[in-house]
Amino acid sequence: MSIPRDTHVADRVGWVKLARVLSNVISPPTMFAATGLALGVRERGWWPGFGWGALYALIISLTPMLVILYLMRTGRIGDLHMSATRERHIPYLTAAASGALVYGLLTLLNGPALLRCLAIFNVVTLSALALINSRWLISIHATAAAASWLIAAFVFGPLVGLVVLPVAVLICYVRLYLKRHTPAQVLAGAALGLSVVGIMRLLGCFVI
């Protein structure tokens, strides 16, 4: 893979700067958190649905981000993009463990079924990503974007799916534009997200 466009600070201007900001802001933790909040509200209403969604978002998103910031501070990873496969092992395993934790809490406290399904999705995909990334740099941005789009289409209907689709495509394009991933890595990430959501739908998840 070629050197990413935003590797050097001097290159982070114009479109490269905008693409980097989008990639950092609309990140996998952000996408999962937003999806969790939406699913909580969809199933249980604004309250307590928002509270359930916030619980999910805090555990599934905040915990891995704190681990990543710690690893950055101690020099074990270079930046938020974690371009080297070796940098992703601990964050992925932490995120998978967070998914298992939030699933346990939601089950114990009789939380929304949609959020329990999302937690299972997190455990499955993040475990798969951790395994794949031991050999190959698959795109978790593409996994999260594609999965968020399909979940939105299943739960909220095709109109919402049409609204979310351009955002999902944009995120995948940004990763390609920044040269953080190859087309194969982005396609593989998207395929992983779509296939896991599709299989879970067949098993009764993401149905309202």
List the helices and strands and how they pair.
Elements: H1 14-25, H2 28-44, H3 46-73, H4 89-108, H5 113-132, H6 140-156, H7 158-177, H8 183-202
Would you kindly provide a written description of the structure presented here, covering whatever features stand out?
This protein is mostly helical. The protein contains eight helices and no strands. The chain has helices spanning 14-25, 28-44, 46-73, 89-108, 113-132, 140-156, 158-177, 183-202. Helix 6 packs antiparallel against helix 7 (158-177).
Features:
208 residues; mainly alpha; globular
Distance between the termini: 42 Å
- Backbone shape: globular
- The overall pLDDT average reads 90
Radius of gyration: 17 Å
Number of strands: 0
Query: What's the helical proportion of residues?
Result: over 70%
Give the quaternary arrangement of the chains: single chain
Tally the helices: what do you get? 8
Order of helix and strand elements from N to C terminus? HHHHHHHH
Query: Largest beta sheet, briefly?
Result: none
Low-confidence stretches: none
Percent of sequence in beta strands: under 5%
Which class of secondary structure composition applies to the elements? mainly alpha
